[in-house]
Amino acid sequence: MSDLLIFFKKDFRSFFNLRYEARHQSLFKAIVVGVFAAGILSGLFVLFLDAFRFLSTLGGIGIMIIQHLFGFFFFGLGMMLILSNIITAYALYFRSSDVPFLMVQPVSRGTAAVHKLIESALLSSWAFFFIMLPFMAAFAWHQQLPLSFAFWTVIFSIPFVGLCSGIGVILVLVTVRFLPRLRGWAWLVLVAIAMAVFGYYGPLAGGPGQTDDGSFLLAGLVPGITFTSFPLWPSWWVSEGIMALVRERWGRGLLLFCVLLANFLLMAVVVEYIGDRFFYRAWEKVVSSGRRGNISRADSSGLASLLALILPPECRAIVLKDIRTFLRDPVQVIQGLLFFGLLAIYFFNLRNLHYNLLTPVWRNLISFLNVFSLSTIMCSFCSRFIFPQISLEGHAFWVIGLSPTGMSRVLKYKFVLAVSTMLMISGTLLVVSALMLEVDNFVLLINIIVAAAVSFGLCGLALGLGAIFMDLKQSNPVAIISGFGGTFNLVLSLIYIMAVIVPFGFISHEYIIGNISRSLFLAGIVFAGVWLALITVLATFLPMIAGRRSLVAREY
């Protein structure tokens, strides 16, 4: 315990010293983040409140759904917390710069593992509370709950976050320690298969739950809602405990809180035990495998042979280098899979949610919402992985600048690789979405055209602005995208997405509900298509041209 207190003292001093770094942060970044955060929180509150009011209009069945929705919400956030902690824990336990220092200090590795667990929980919980706040506020407003509801929600959320974080940490430590070293493509295939199986046969397809008539009816209307009401889930302890304490059923509420707290403390003990047994061996395994690389010579030669069929030699070298760099970092691979894997799970579950049985109005609306969801994830992917590509070349960038290839070709080849990846992913996911929703071929065609245009626009913005705001002194991609250039790119990308999707969605919706004629609908589609082409050309080529000029003008 004394060692853990020393860790906490160090963390407190580090947190206190952040005020010095905050002085050097961009004011524009702080304003943009604050405005967007306030806007998202307000929008989510209005959306959740409107959803609760809609459910109330359904009568008794709506009230039953609202009662179960609380546990359903915490179950979903718990699953997201586990996935988020898997990524965060891998980086903290095996990629953090302080781990080699800790391995040679007179500190129990189990204590270090528990400290990393708390650190992972803190880093992963900000999104949990960011989504939870508007939902809880809307739920309390609609149900007219007292202020004690907010207090008990926070109290229950702390051990719940720690419990979910512990599950993610244990999965990472055990997996890294005992799973065999597989090639990069093998991991991709295994994770993709696991996500596909989970998406089709996962919780939304059924599971344990209550078997009374009301629960059977709810299962038909909202698949998965009775699964999340299983009494052994921690999310059920949270939802039932909070509501029990709000209704002044102190014995039941405190009992459920003690059960949740006891499981969290047990999880910490398990993490300490696994840390003592496996932390060093797992870390040693990661370090030794990192020195050899995660891609064998056979993989590299096979990939090079495939690229040789379609790319010229100078382009092939640059593209092969970027692919190898991505695949050799497990954190980036997992993040990339989660970016689109969770969305794929949702698309595969559209029929389990019975969205294909809705009216054409709702299916059309959901299809465009899916395009918007895919576009925002592509925006996040481009900001995280594509924007810092030029800067991550580092101090050896002068080698590329002096090479016969030239900076213009380098930028063009990186753009071709990024766009090809985005087109392949977006096209596949949209076809899955259309097949599950059973939308018309015309709507599918519009969605694919919009997604293809978004792929070009987002990649052009990310690469062009990444070249303009290049920072070769930084080796951390998070630090690169958190600067002025990364914030500016994110803002422009979100504005571009709204500008290209809203016209098509609005015109299609007005036509399906009968507010405009077919001739006016076709004219509106043509106008929206011209607008799409114009703004996509501007978003793609203007940043790329400015980025190329910025790179060429530099001295090498």
Describe the structure.
This protein is mostly helical and 556 residues long. It has 21 helices and no strands. The chain has helices spanning 2-16, 18-22, 27-56, 60-95, 99-103, 109-143, 148-178, 184-201, 213-221, 234-246, 250-292, 297-308, 313-327, 330-348, 360-386, 397-402, 407-437, 441-468, 477-481, 484-512, 518-553. The longest helix has 43 residues, at 250-292. The chain is globular, with a radius of gyration of 25 Å. The protein starts with a helix and ends with a helix.
Tell me the radius of gyration. 25 Å
DSSP summary, beta strand count: 0
What is the helical fraction, as a range of percent? over 70%
Overall pLDDT metric: 77
Uncertain runs: 203-219, 291-298
Structural class: mainly alpha
* Main sheet specs: none
Give, in order, the helices and strands. HHHHHHHHHHHHHHHHHHHHH
Helix count? 21
